[in-house]
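forwarding from the other thread:

> can someone predict this with D-glutamic acid?

sure thing
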Amino acid sequence: MNSSLPTAPGPIGVFDSGYGGLTVLDEIQQLMPEYDYLYLGDNARAPYGTRSFEVVYEFTLQAVRRLFEMGCHLVILACNTASAKALRTIQQCDLPEIDPERRVLGVIRPTTECVGSLTRNGHVGIFATQGTIRSHTYDIEIGKLHPGVRVTGLACPMWVPLIENKEYDSPGVDYFVKKYIDQLLSRDPEIDTILLGCTHYPLLLSKIRQHTPSHIRLVPQGEFVANSLHDYLQRHPDMEQRITKGGTCRLLTTEHPLTFNESATIFLGRNVNAEHVTL
Ligand code: DGL
């Protein structure tokens, strides 16, 4: 166990490869404004979606360790790619050695738990990064919880770079949004529910809506993750007591803070003042 970690209560850590996790942070903060939050975006090394299992695991573990060193007892991986590729190994192999009392939670489980109540005909589509789709984590988890549901996943490798470059509304976006929707629906024309399995994608929600047949339900995951965290803290008062309650939110980025501030303002809809961190 790492005895140099701070033991006093601290903020909830929220991690993403870049800006995407801000869509989750926003929902969590709206539901539980009383807690302190520490967000870390590894923007200098984003996107993670096309990186190997080993690299995503290594980068995610570095971020988790840093959030622990900065006082967090609970870290949310607000990134599907990190949740798919790194979460289990961190929970099973690293936490027992770092500190068995600290916790790291992901975004895939809370999202898959809701699938049964969202689809009416049992045909579900998922848009996510290449890494998340190739890991088959969604298919496996949905298969365990809702065995009758047919899952069709599609990687959308162009969406995160467009979002990270603040391209939300150009003709190029229309092209790549329509392209992936058409591909997904050609694989299963009966899909009635599409999960946005990447925390960046809510930024394209209005474009995705525009190009998706109106009977199909589009599901961003932030709200489910926030509700699930709320339940978790009610069920684990020991952890809840290790979170400070000052209603603050500090943002850290591995990129230049001014670059981060510009985009984060769009994601959060308010001005932010990020700090630089190295991993
Ligand atoms: N926002 C992340 C996710 O939910 C990943 C984006 C990326 O870095 O490729 O998967």
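Residues 53-69 form the longest helix (17 residues). thats all i got for now
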